Amino acid sequence: METSEKQCDHRCRNTCAMLVDALRDEKKLIAYYESILTQCNDPAIKHFVSEIIATHGLLVGRIIEQLNVIRANSEVLDDIMTSFDS
To answer: Residues of the chain with pLDDT > 90: what percent?
Structure first.
């Protein structure tokens, strides 16, 4: 999950590659923290890790929401461009 590996190529059309990568990373983090949760038996740590999982879950939801906005905007633009081609 190194940011230096990922760079925006500014050629995204119907989605954002950087947000798709961020979504994938957040899901990996959730899986990682869930594995901690299953292995840990300290109630305080389990509660703390559960909160971290919830936070990352909210981030996943927000990223998905933004990707949906990007796709919807792209569909509108496609429809507009198609109407000019007709």
So the answer is: 60
